[in-house]
Design the sequence.
């Protein structure tokens, strides 16, 4: 693919991964891109590389603009494999280039490559590098997405290279937000931002708030945000920042996600009156069967909802395995600002619903107790009670939701 000019003398030189459907366990039905950027200046500077498998493609894109041996600096904003994996291949073409990264980036880099012959300079927030007409300023962003992460602000171009932050997993020929919206839709773009945040950045809400505050205090004049995945924010550069702030502050939809699995359909049967009860309270509701749904999709549906209802049968006195897997994922993402309840079915001894409440409380979610469960098969009166359980939960969700308005 040819490089794409994003600003005078600044180019996208990345790679589009049309085929990836499993991104370290996160389902990516729309693929992704590995963006990196080239600044043509007195000291030619490359910002990030690409995933190792895409080294050949990325280098070919780079060569559509410049001979790689002219590169004087490589900025490594993040050492995860999808951005630094190809660094060794690039360094073979410009072995005298100086690498700029954070202290933790430098430490981590040495675990992936023999850096003994490379010139590596460690940088921290506020450090600047003049490369001719452009000045780069580095901003450390630990845990967005790894401890080593940083962003690079190109002052004269009013361009923030934001690395993982503000990205989306979208393989597309559109390089900019406005191009994508024209060929797809605004909703698809924003959904991709939410999906990415839910599955990657959910645990770091507090850090995101403080980092955005720091960026605001630095009064950076930002005209464009260029992340390392997906489209570049040209038309609405501050839209992803607003979305991140909203999500970090707990804003979401007045909506309930019923996430469940089932053995002999008893728990599944219960989802219908519960869903109807929620709906009849005027609350939108989404029903997700775990074994029919990729885990990252279930996580996103959770994140888009103020209320969570988890349904599970009891199997050998334990929660159903696919439900346990969902809870394990959710716990690792450290969710906040959500209200939850549990329901299910059992044969001769319960256990799943109790366990689910223990997990909700360990995650410090707001809970509505007691849960609801039936023995063997739901009867007509159970269906009526399940409907009431749904209504009661929806009322609690509406009340809790007021805290965020
Ligand atoms: Fe896109 Fe944290 O890597």
Sequence:
């Amino acid at each position: 693919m040819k490089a794409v000019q994003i600003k005078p003398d600044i180019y996208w030189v990345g790679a589009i991964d049309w085929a990836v459907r499993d991104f370290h366990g996160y389902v990516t039905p729309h693929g992704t891109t590995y963006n990196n950027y080239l600044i043509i200046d007195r000291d030619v500077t490359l910002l990030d590389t690409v995933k190792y498998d895409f080294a050949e493609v990325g280098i070919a894109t780079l060569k559509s603009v410049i001979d790689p041996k002219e590169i004087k600096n490589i900025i490594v904003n993040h050492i995860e494999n999808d951005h630094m994996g190809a660094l060794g291949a690039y360094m073979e073409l410009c072995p005298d280039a100086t690498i700029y990264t954070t202290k933790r980036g430098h430490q981590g880099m040495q675990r992936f490559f023999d850096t003994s012959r490379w010139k590596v300079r460690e940088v921290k927030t506020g450090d600047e590098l003049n490369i001719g007409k452009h000045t780069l300023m580095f901003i450390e962003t630990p845990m967005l997405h790894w401890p080593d992460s940083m962003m690079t602000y190109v002052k004269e171009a009013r361009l923030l290279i934001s690395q993982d932050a503000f990205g989306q997993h979208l393989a597309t020929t559109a390089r900019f937000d406005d191009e994508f919206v024209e060929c797809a839709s605004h909703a698809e773009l924003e959904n991709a931002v939410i999906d990415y945040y839910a599955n990657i950045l959910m645990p770091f809400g507090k850090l995101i708030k403080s980092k955005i505050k720091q960026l605001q205090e630095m009064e950076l004049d930002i005209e464009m945000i260029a992340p390392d995945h997906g489209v570049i924010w040209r038309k609405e550069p501050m839209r992803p920042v607003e979305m991140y702030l909203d999500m970090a502050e707990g804003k979401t939809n007045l909506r309930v996600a019923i996430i469940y699995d089932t053995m002999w359909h008893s728990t599944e049967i219960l989802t219908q009156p519960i869903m109807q009860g929620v709906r009849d309270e005027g609350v939108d509701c989404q029903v997700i069967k775990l074994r029919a749904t990729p885990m990252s999709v279930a996580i996103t549906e959770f994140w888009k909802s103020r209320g969570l209802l988890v349904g599970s049968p009891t199997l050998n006195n334990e929660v159903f395995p696919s439900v346990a897997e969902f809870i394990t994922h959710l716990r690792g993402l450290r969710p906040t600002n959500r209200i939850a309840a549990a329901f299910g079915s059992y044969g001769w001894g319960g256990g799943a619903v109790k366990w689910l409440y223990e997990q909700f409380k360990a995650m410090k979610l707001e809970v509505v107790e007691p849960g609801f469960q039936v023995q063997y098969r739901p009867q007509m009166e159970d269906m009526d009670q399940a409907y009431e359980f749904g209504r009661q939960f929806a009322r609690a969700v509406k009340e809790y939701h007021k805290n965020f308005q």
About this structure: The first helix runs from residue 55 to 63. The longest strand covers residues 305-315. The pocket of MU-OXO-diiron is lined by residues 78, 80, 82-83, 145-146, 164, 228-229 (CB under 6 Å).
